[in-house]
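Give me the fold.
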Amino acid sequence: MGGWAIAVHGGAGVDPNLPPHRQEQAKQLLTRCLNLGISALRSNASAVDVVELVVRELETDPLFNSGRGSALTEKGTVEMEASIMDGSKRRCGAVSGLTTVKNPVSLARLVMDKSPHSYLAFNGAEEFARQQGVEVVENEYFITPENVGMLKLAKEANTILFDYRIPTAGYDSCGVGAESPLQMNGLPISVYAPETVGCVVVDKEGRCAAATSTGGLMNKKSGRIGDSPLIGAGTYACGVCGVSCTGEGEAIIRGTLAREVAAVMEYKGLPLQQAVDFVIKHRLDEGKAGLIAVSNTGDVAYGFNCNAMFRGCATEDGFMEVGIWD
């Protein structure tokens, strides 16, 4: 075994005019989350425990699009979704349509551990949360003034707004009103991808796990479900690797992106980074996305085909890296 490894992401697709102080905030948050995971791994925590721990931290901070700070639906509400997978036995849990659960990833973990099911959504997921005694809050807890402003801009532009953190000042330079070459299911969209969060870990026993959480798209239709809670699309872990994806959810779903990384490792015999590169190049069609991955031998990798991805990784041998741009 090559020792433990961890990777985190805060989404693929970044406003090229993102102010330096916002870039620094993102790097600091990713670094904090990596250090949290490193400390847990050094204390012999399991891979699945670590991915839950790290994603909870990302959900609690409003900087990225998950938990508090989630993107708003067209109705101005928050509908969150998350999934988690323990690769050692391919056990998984997923939730969608959450409006009051403070940490969606932990409810996904409870679906995996405490229910006979793999996926619960909307009223059923909320009822299960109350049965399990998880912390719940009013929907307003998740809504930030910044996102209220971004929703207003999205409605004025009559579009789904992907990068919900683009500052209002100078917004005309970000291409919202301009014709976009990108499409989602044949319809034009704005040019920036949603900032889903995720974490992948292999522990010192070689067990892989993955977790992903998001608020979805700004100005999305109520009831829309993306790739993040879909096992094999936005999240996947098995005996070989763990993968978490981010970007254009509809393209990730069509390409079953996370599972494809494991598949080409298993069936083509590719090492982790080559598998990631292959999938990003050949399985996204015209979609824009990125992913992070670890292997059971302690390798860590990432890839994306858009302008940037908020990401960080660390390994037991002391390597640590946090970055945004290509």
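The CA atoms of residues 22 and 63 lie 9 Å apart.
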